[in-house]
Design a protein that fits this description.
Length: 129
């Protein structure tokens, strides 16, 4: 996953489905030490974090998912209304993290990790191209 344009891995339609209408992503503040991209709308934030050569998040802590042949898992935190989806891609791993601490984002209300899983599926589809 090294050398990809991380901000292009989620397209505007997918971000709109998560309640993010500004599809221009931002690089992490400590880039290039941290790889990925993030998007924010009101109080909702979507993070895509990439770990090259390391699988830093334990898939056993979440609900196992299959992402077109890549192993992954999702976790939902009821207290913070935050979803984490981790997917292993070879020796690398990426995480999609969606947080809506205000609970005001109707695109996410009551959906737990469904939107996060769909975003992770889109990242996998773009990586496989």
């Amino acid at each position: 996953m090294k050398g990809l344009d991380y901000c292009s891995l989620l397209d505007p339609a997918a971000l709109t489905a998560a309640g993010i209408h500004d599809s221009k992503g931002q690089l992490p503040a400590d880039y290039p030490n941290v790889l990925g991209c993030w998007w924010m709308q009101d109080k909702t934030i979507v993070n895509l974090t990439v770990s090259v050569g390391a699988q830093v998040n334990d898939l056993d802590k979440g609900e196992k998912q299959d992402f077109s042949g890549f192993e992954g898992a999702s976790q939902y935190n009821e207290i913070t209304s935050e979803c984490f989806v981790d997917v292993n891609v070879g020796l690398d791993q990426f995480r999609v993290d969606i947080a809506d601490p205000s609970g005001e984002n109707k695109a996410l209300t009551g959906k737990k990790c469904n939107v996060g899983v769909q975003l992770a599926r889109q990242v996998v589809a773009k990586i496989k191209k």
